[in-house]
Amino acid sequence: MAKNKLLRMDNVGIVVESLDDAISFFEEIGLTLEGRATVEGEWAGRVTGLGSQCVEIAMMVTPDGHSRLELSRFLTPPPISDHRTAPVNSLGYLRVMFAVEDIDEMVSRLIKRGAQLVGEVVQYKDSYRLCYIRGAEGILIGLAEQLGNK
């Protein structure tokens, strides 16, 4: 019997309060809105285990077309907990990391839009410059600029 093979990671899901704010934030980073839709009904609740649900979703895609973020705004049932201000060492969802060309320029742009640098931009050996930022709705993201052989 042949072993089932993993094909790819399809997307990472993030629950938000405002789709418009989250879309705008991720567009500033460089993702593109691929589409928006409402997902509702008993069939969807069977997948999530939430029963009947109504969720607005937006699919964001990276410039290379290989990675996606699914942003979800739950109308029913409403969200029951909030992990957005959890520190980096919390269990569960932590952050999404994006590779960028110029970390200083990206950080500057995002701060002008209300994002906050979590710590500082640091250099790891001669390989990377890295940082964490809290963006729209407190979503934690990482930024990495590869140094040397780009």
TrEMBL record:
Task: State if Metal-binding is listed as a keyword.
Answer: yes
Q: Which UniProt keywords apply?
A: Metal-binding
Output the InterPro entries linked to this UniProt entry: Glyas_Bleomycin-R_OHBP_Dase, MMCE/EMCE_epimerase, VOC_core
PROSITE patterns, from UniProt?
A: VOC
Gene3D superfamilies on file: 2,3-Dihydroxybiphenyl 1,2-Dioxygenase, domain 1
The molecular function terms in GO held by this entry are: metal ion binding; methylmalonyl-CoA epimerase activity
Pfam families from the UniProt entry: Glyoxalase_4
Q: Give the domain of life.
A: Bacteria
Q: What is this protein called?
A: VOC domain-containing protein
